[in-house]
Design brief:
Number of strands: 22
Number of helices: 13
Helix content: 25-40%
Structural class: alpha/beta
Distance between the termini: 30 Å
Length: 547
């Protein structure tokens, strides 16, 4: 990415005049300066203080004006993931000339399940209840208009995705569920690709090939590093860099759609927007946020901190989300286990990550100790806490054969240490006597019918006694995505710091914000993130092409 990247020391060395010159150079592009909501302009801060304002990615970009080649299209889509491919499809279907620029050498997606609402079975009140449910799970920070776009269009969008993938031999296995909220039954339908080698990316590869055959032009290894703007500040195209370092201007007569995903492999952006991800393992190395930075340099604003994070790491075989006894890697109980959904467990891990100097993501791991008759409690507990209790990942059920087992607590401690060593959990050191004391104390609390240690509801206090004993390795330690992007309106058009739409600039999928708003990604509707990505691209591509 081409940026002006002066350090604080450089700017102090050169003095206020040099700092002002740097800011002035950025203004020549005709685009705005990088902004976050409520953040003063980088130009003003530089001129006033002679010091860099914030991190380097918020520095004004030096305008790129020399191009090896110029390309003319109606719509330019930046990114070939779920949202980008969906945007390409609907723009192409609406008659637009479409280019898709991608920063790596192929279409690429993450995830293997996408959720929608089945509108043939779900009435209007239930649809609105689902929108309210997502808003509640997002700490009431969701934009209701954006969630409604998913609710109204997801069924159509996901049906297209499944049909298009099937043309290339990649079949979806449907997963249907009913979510009850506020007394309303919400019928959910998901496309799942757990069974496909390569997972969801197999579908994306086929769909990209189909779209290219239908007339869309794909430019791989062509990252967007800047946006072109006219004198009014309207975005008129995307500026990309090829493998030789030369720049190409992709003019967009109707608009540029940023479908570039998040910034989850850019450590500086993570530290700034999502500091609570420190210590977790990064999932990719190519989601560098460069196109989001280009959007901010065009005047777009970023969703306020802290951004919603998606933390994964538990395979389906061990994802038993039931509130039995949880112990850390030293065999100590550490929480009220009724908060047991995978997506939230990382919030209990930070002291352990800190103990490892934030250098070992396996410090976020722990164990769930489960009685032999664990299945006897599932239906009752599921009825009591429908959003928290689960033994499924899509249609994949937990597999006790993958769990750690022993006939005694002492034997279980030995087996847990062996498992940890085999899987390179560096902090695990479970003393058999300590684990026995933890289990004895927990069983004592269960017998008393009151949790004097953590206050867990008595109905979930089930003793761990009588073998065989099970220990389930749990804990999420990988960061697949950040769910906080550029602020958009109900048309997915990017907004400036006055909350006015920027002509010609749109953002979809994880590049856009305000759909999720909580600290964590709510996994209560599995596949929601990918369903939202496909739907937003599908909706916006059609919208932009019709302008």
């Amino acid at each position: 990415m081409t940026t002006t990247n002066f350090t604080r020391r450089d700017l102090l060395k050169f003095g206020g005049i040099a700092a002002a010159a740097v800011a002035g150079a950025g203004a020549l592009s005709g685009c705005g300066q990088p902004r976050a909501v409520g953040q003063a302009s980088a130009e003003g801060d530089l001129a006033a203080t002679g010091a860099a304002a914030g991190p380097s990615f918020l520095a004004p970009q030096t305008p790129i004006t020399d191009f090896a080649e110029t390309h003319d299209y109606d719509v330019v889509v930046v990114g070939a993931g779920e949202s980008g491919l969906a945007a390409v499809h609907t723009a192409l279907e609406a008659g637009a000339r479409v280019a898709c620029v991608q920063n790596i050498n192929a279409a690429q997606t993450t995830g293997n399940m996408a959720a929608s609402i089945d509108l043939t079975k779900t009435d209007e009140a239930a649809v609105q209840a689902c929108v309210s449910f997502i808003n509640w799970k997002s700490d009431y920070r969701s934009d209701r208009d954006l969630v409604n776009i998913w609710a109204r269009n997801s069924q159509e969008a996901l049906a297209w995705w499944a049909e298009e993938a099937a043309k290339g031999g990649v079949e979806s296995k449907p997963h249907d569920a009913v979510l009850t909220y506020n007394g309303y039954d919400i019928h959910l339908h998901a496309n799942t690709y757990f069974h496909v080698e390569g997972n969801h990316n197999a579908a994306a590869t086929v769909i990209a090939e189909n779209l290219a055959g239908a007339g869309a032009e794909f430019f791989y290894n062509m990252p967007c590093v800047q946006l072109a703007c006219d004198e009014s500040g309207a975005v008129t195209g995307a500026i990309c860099e090829d493998a030789d370092g030369e720049h190409h201007l992709f003019n967009a007569a109707k608009g540029v759609i940023l479908a570039c995903g998040d910034y989850s492999s850019n450590q500086e952006m993570l530290d700034y927007y999502a500091p609570d991800t420190k210590g977790f393992s990064l999932f990719t190395d190519f989601r560098d946020g460069s196109a989001l930075v280009a959007g901010m340099n065009a005047g777009a604003i970023m969703t306020p901190h802290a951004h919603t994070k998606m933390i994964h790491g538990e395979p389906a075989a061990v994802r038993l989300e039931m509130p039995f006894l949880f112990v850390d890697q030293e065999g100590n109980r550490f929480m009220d286990e009724t908060c047991c959904r995978m997506g939230y467990m990382n919030n209990f891990a930070r002291p352990y990550l800190a103990r490892a100097g934030f250098e070992d993501s396996t410090a976020a791991k722990f164990f769930s100790l489960v009685p032999a008759n664990w299945e006897d409690y599932y239906d009752e507990w599921k009825a009591e806490r429908p959003y928290d209790i689960s033994q499924y990942n899509g249609d994949n059920k937990v597999n006790p054969e993958k769990w750690i087992t022993a006939d005694t607590i002492e034997g279980l401690a030995e087996a847990m240490n062996a498992y940890a060593a085999e899987n390179d959990w560096k902090l695990t050191n479970i003393d058999a006597a300590q684990l026995a004391d933890t289990v004895a104390r927990y069983n004592e609390l269960c017998a008393a019918g009151a949790d004097a240690d953590f206050g867990k509801a008595a109905q979930f206090m089930v003793p761990i006694d009588g073998g065989p004993y099970y220990a389930i390795p749990r804990g999420s330690n990988k960061l697949p995505a950040i769910l906080g992007g550029l602020v958009v309106d109900k048309n997915h058009q990017c907004l400036n710091e006055e909350f006015q739409p920027i002509d010609g600039l749109y953002a979809v999928g994880n590049a856009s914000g305000q759909f999720f708003g909580g600290v964590d990604y709510p996994m209560d509707i599995e596949g929601l993130s990918i369903g939202r990505a496909i739907t937003s691209g599908y909706y916006t591509g059609k919208l932009v092409a019709s302008l």
